[in-house]
């Protein structure tokens, strides 16, 4: 369920999330709309993934992504949230986020404390940075998907 669909290409608008305070933790996550989430393969595993992301026509950056259960829908629908490993000057709600998911890190976990959660995410970020420097992942940074408005918008193996 996790690797079978990779690499996975996806493009969609950034919407308001559930205000879980990701930004306050220093780890803002750009949420995709329900419609975009519904377009994901229904059997894709929840958990933490990594890949490349680009806002509008901006630069392509490393990212970590969580596919999780959406508390707003009583955990019957998924949510897809991208933390881009880059410091942005401003928020980008309403902009088009393009991503390619290239690898999987781990399943979802519950943490005993906020500190444990934050350090797990920091480890995920370090793991993503390392993996994305490997040729098989690095090559997707240059994919045509990223700087072409008419580029492919569906998953393409
Ligand atoms: P929400 O609950 O609305 O998703 P977050 O606290 O998760 O709020 O913050 C997400 C928002 O922060 C994104 O929609 C985006 O506009 C902004 N943002 C700023 N920097 C980043 C980044 N590096 N990665 C993801 N989102 C970012
Ligand atoms: Mg968020």
From TrEMBL:
This is Riboflavin kinase. It comes from the Eukaryota. GO terms for cellular component: mitochondrion. GO terms for molecular function: ATP binding; metal ion binding; riboflavin kinase activity. The gene is Rfk. One of its GO terms (biological process) is riboflavin biosynthetic process. Pathway: Cofactor biosynthesis; FMN biosynthesis; FMN from riboflavin (ATP route): step 1/1. It catalyses: riboflavin + ATP = FMN + ADP + H(+). Residues 3-133 form the Riboflavin kinase domain. Keywords: ATP-binding, Flavoprotein, FMN, Kinase, Metal-binding, Nucleotide-binding, Transferase, Zinc. InterPro entries: Riboflavin_kinase, Riboflavin_kinase_bac/euk, Riboflavin_kinase_dom_sf. Its cofactor is Zn(2+). Its EC number is 2.7.1.26. Catalyzes the phosphorylation of riboflavin (vitamin B2) to form flavin-mononucleotide (FMN), hence rate-limiting enzyme in the synthesis of FAD. Essential for TNF-induced reactive oxygen species (ROS) production. Through its interaction with both TNFRSF1A and CYBA, physically and functionally couples TNFRSF1A to NADPH oxidase. TNF-activation of RFK may enhance the incorporation of FAD in NADPH oxidase, a critical step for the assembly and activation of NADPH oxidase.
């Amino acid at each position: 369920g996790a690797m079978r669909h990779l690499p996975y290409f996806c493009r969609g608008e950034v919407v308001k999330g559930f205000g879980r305070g990701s930004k306050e933790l220093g780890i803002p996550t750009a949420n995709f709309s329900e419609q975009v989430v519904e377009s994901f393969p229904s059997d894709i595993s929840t958990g933490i993934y990594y890949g490349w992301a680009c806002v509008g026509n901006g630069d392509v950056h490393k990212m970590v992504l969580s596919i999780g259960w959406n508390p707003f829908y009583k955990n019957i629908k998924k949510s897809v949230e991208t933390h881009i490993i880059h410091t942005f000057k401003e928020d980008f709600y309403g902009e088009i986020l393009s991503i390619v998911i290239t690898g999987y890190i781990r399943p979802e976990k519950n943490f005993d404390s906020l500190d444990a959660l934050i350090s797990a995410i920091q480890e995920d970020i370090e793991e993503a940075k390392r993996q994305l420097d490997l040729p098989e992942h690095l090559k997707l940074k240059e994919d045509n998907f990223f700087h072409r408005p008419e580029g492919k918008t569906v998953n393409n193996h």
